Amino acid sequence: MLLLSQFMACVSAILEKTPPSSTCCASLVGHENCYCSFKNSPTFNHYITPILQIFSRTCNIQIPQY
């Protein structure tokens, strides 16, 4: 389960719309299945989908399509 605290290393990348740091990427690896709960949420979808696309490319992680 992905906890919001695990995104702390990524806050600056999210807020400043800058590429994620290596620390951010390391904190995201292994939690790819959890991102669907954010991506499929009507509350977060609009905000998180573009961020996940950037993080996916930069951090070389795969975001499930379901």
UniProtKB/TrEMBL annotation:
Residue ranges constituting the Bifunctional inhibitor/plant lipid transfer protein/seed storage helical domain according to the UniProt record: 4-65
GO molecular function, one term: lipid binding
Similarity comment: Belongs to the plant LTP family. B11E subfamily.
Organism: Zostera marina
InterPro entries (alphabetical): Bifun_inhib/LTP/seed_sf, Bifunc_inhib/LTP/seed_store, nsLTP2
Annotated Gene3D superfamilies: Plant lipid-transfer and hydrophobic proteins
Superkingdom as given in the UniProt entry: Eukaryota
Protein name: Bifunctional inhibitor/plant lipid transfer protein/seed storage helical domain-containing protein
Entries under Pfam families matching the protein: Tryp_alpha_amyl
GO BP annotation list: lipid transport
UniProtKB keywords: Lipid-binding, Transport
